[in-house]
Amino acid sequence: MGASSSKARGLWPFTSAAGGGVPETTGAEQALVRPRGRGVPPFVFTRRGSMFYDEDGDLAHEFYEETIVTKNGQKRAKLRRVYKNLIPQGIVKLDPPRIHVDFPVILYEL
């Protein structure tokens, strides 16, 4: 098996059908970019959302409610954080896709 047959198997994920991918490399260098398990792509297309919906359908990271506190005969407004009745945002599509954190390639800028 030559380097061209390993390219056809998909060891280097950034090659195109027109060529111009990675130059011919040895088997030891190809081991660095071999995907784990089934041919898993190096990209992440979705993530779990970090925001929440409240009862009114508003979307935010945190929710506060204003409460009136009487202290020494004076009324003061305070903000109290709401933890109950919040619905997680769910799955969020990433546009553009991100590179997976476990992808074994070092990226750098010259």
Class computed from helices, strands and strand pairing: mainly beta
Strand content: 35-45%
- Share of helix among residues? under 10%
Strand count, sense and closure of the main sheet? Answer: 3 strands, antiparallel
Number of helical segments with 4 or more residues? 2
List the strand order in the largest sheet.
Answer: 3-2-6
Shape: elongated
List the secondary-structure elements in sequence, H or E: HHEEEEEEE
Our Rg estimate from Cα atoms comes to: 26 Å
In total, how many beta strands? 7
Give the N-to-C terminal Cα separation.
34 Å
Residue-averaged pLDDT, rounded?
Answer: 76
Regions with little confidence, pLDDT below 50 for 5+ residues = 1-8, 27-32
Organism: Heterocephalus glaber
Protein name: Tumor suppressor candidate 2
Pfam family, one: TUSC2
InterPro entries: FUS1 (IPR029393)
Task: Provide a quick synopsis of the model.
The chain is mainly β and about 110 residues long. The protein is about 10% helix and about 35% strand.
Structure description:
- Pfam families: TUSC2 (PF15000).
- This is Tumor suppressor candidate 2.
- One of its GO terms (biological process) is regulation of mitochondrial membrane potential.
- There is one protein chain.
- The strands form 3 sheets. The protein has a 3-stranded antiparallel beta sheet with strand order 3-2-6, with no helix packed on it. A two-stranded antiparallel ribbon has the order 1-7. The protein has a two-stranded antiparallel sheet with strand order 4-5.
- It has about 110 residues and is mainly beta.
- The protein is built from 2 helices and 7 strands; from the N terminus they run ααβββββββ.
- Helix content is about 10%, strand content about 35%.
- The longest helix is centred in the first third of the chain and has 6 residues, at about 5-10.
- The chain has a domain at about 45-100.
- Residues about 1-10 and about 25-30 have low confidence and may be disordered.
